[in-house]
Amino acid sequence: MKDGSPTFAKIVEGIDKSLAKGITVNLRVVVDRDNIEALPRLARFASKRGWTENPHFKTQIGRNYELHTCQADPGKLYSRVELAEELYNLVLKHPEILEFHRPAFSLSRFLFQRGELPFPLFDACPACKTEWGFDYTGSIYPCTATIGKKEETIGTFYPSVNLEKERIEEWEDRDITVIKECKNCNLGLACGGGCGYMAKKSKGRVHSPDCRPVKELLEMGLSLYFEKGV
Ligand code: SF4
């Protein structure tokens, strides 16, 4: 809350009421170095509350990340692979976390649960495809990560509708078949080229790679799901 008052009880009440009405809840838990130790407690809480048995209850574990500048202390942030390592170690100590959330670890969870590989991933970035961003000034952006960054606007919806077609096409066209570095990458169909905005921020072009740590994630996921921590 803006005044700093607590929100946990209100969120719990909201989840209880939503699930009771059969409304699907996708609970996103944003973790950093300060709060990750509380995850096992949250998992046990969700389990006692009956949430984890409810088919309408889903979870995500996310991280705050480098694209946003609102962090008071960027030192608390995990990189993608660091977060996976922390989760891996935490799950070995507290396997009850898996009732609350099963991390994907690239293809590992899918392979474990379904016994087959998922469809090839040609494109990991939803920008200007399944995701768009709109803000209160009337501007349109390629995705949620770019909202509010004026240099990233791709048009307006107010006071008039105006789309910057060339910029939109650049986002729409982005996949591993057009990014030079991805074309012959042996991880391509598991990685999908990563986040277009992260790629643009680091390399200056939308059609550039944002390499995902596929090998490291797979090693952790296969160890956790198939080899029980070996
Ligand atoms: S790992 Fe890097 S080069 Fe390979 S597909 Fe992903 S973004 Fe492209």
Structural account:
By secondary structure, this protein is of the alpha+beta class. It contains nine helices and six strands. Among the domains are: 8-103, no CATH class; 126-170, no CATH class. 36% of the residues lie in helices and 10% in strands. The protein has a four-stranded antiparallel β-sheet with strand order 3-4-5-6, with no helix packed on it. Strand 3 (133-134) and strand 4 form a beta hairpin. The radius of gyration is 20 Å and the shape is globular. Residues 176, 179, 181-182, 185, 187-188, 191, 193-194, 209-212 line the site of iron/sulfur cluster (SF4).
List keywords for this structure.
230 residues, alpha+beta, four-stranded antiparallel beta sheet, two-stranded parallel ribbon, 9 helices, 10% strand, globular, binds iron/sulfur cluster
Structural classification:
alpha+beta
**Low-confidence stretches at least 5 residues in length (pLDDT < 50)?**
none
Helix content: 25-40%
Global outline: globular
Mean pLDDT: 94
- Please give the alpha-carbon distance between the first and last residues: 43 Å
**SS elements, strand count:** 6
Query: Strand fraction band?
Result: 5-15%
Strand order of the largest sheet: 3-4-5-6
What integer value in Å does the Rg equal?
20 Å
Q: Name every ligand kind in the structure.
A: iron/sulfur cluster
Reading the helices and strands in chain order gives: HEHEHHHEEEEHHHH
In this structure, how is the largest beta sheet organized? Answer: 4 strands, antiparallel
**Count of helical stretches:** 9
